[in-house]
Amino acid sequence: MHKPVLTDQQLVEMYQQGNENCLTILIERHQKRIFSAILFLVNDRETAEDIFQDTFVKVINTLKRGTYNEEGKFLPWVLRIGHNLVIDHFRRNQRMPLVRDKEDYSIIESLKLTDENVQDKMMREQIYKEVRLLVEELPFEQKEVVILRHFADMSFKEIADATGVSINTALGRMRYALINLRKIVETKKLVLVS
After folding, report:
1. Is 193 inside a domain boundary?
2. What pLDDT, on a 0 to 100 scale, did the predictor assign at position 109?
3. Which residue has the higher pLDDT, 168 or 106?
4. Checking CA distances to 165, which of 25, 84, 121, 145 falls within 20 to 30 Å?
């Protein structure tokens, strides 16, 4: 018989009752999505690691104080904390992020690869590189929604919860991002091959 998988809420409650292992399970369960979202926004692995750690320090402090009240919404809550820390980071540094590959981490590598020949892979990588450059030209709020939706694979509900806005606002930001991307493509007279 398989052990039943505990929900995030059950793990939170057990952690608050003193079972330290439950927090480890929660971190391992959501680490990749949370870290990826932060990394795509800050574009620096070291900074992303610092923000990821700060995020979980805040999570632990909130859970230990007993002030956590996001029943059933653990992941969006943690993503919102991470998002706020990213915003704080940029305010302190007074600069906006750029989305680029780093030598030790590639957006391309994080996407699922299908059976493809070398030429197909090179073409796909070139298209992604061009799209990433276009995304960098968007205003931060629009860029953030595109990154969270397409690179962190989050639903619009999760994006709304993570960024502290309504679903309609998240959808609106995506709509404006797509409109702006089309304008950029037209202005630069680019041809994106699909």
Report:
1. no
2. 42
3. 168
4. 25
Q: What pLDDT score does 143 carry? A: 86
∠ CA 44-82-107 to the nearest 5 degrees? 40
Query: Can you list the pairs that 167-171 forms with residues at least 24 positions away whose Cβ atoms lie under 8 Å?
Result: 170/145
Q: Which domain holds residue 107?
A: 8-188
The predicted-structure confidence for 50-108, as pLDDT tens digits, reads as follows 999 999 999 989 988 888 887 768 888 898 898 889 888 887 876 544 444 444 444 44
Q: How far is CA 83 from CA 30, 50, 77, 159, in A?
A: 15, 13, 10, 10
Is residue 13 one of the residues assigned to a domain? yes
Provide the domain count of the chain.
1
Residue 125 burial (CB count, 10 A): 14
Is 85 in contact with 37 (CB distance < 8 Å)? no
- Within a domain: 3: no
Q: Is residue 140 part of a domain?
A: yes
CA distance 177 to 89: 23
Please report, in angstroms and rounded to a whole number, the separation of the first and last CA atoms in the chain.
47
Question: Within its chain, how far is the Cα of 140 from the centroid?
Answer: 13
What is the pTM for the complete model shown? 0.59
CA distance 154 to 174: 13
pLDDT at 73: 82
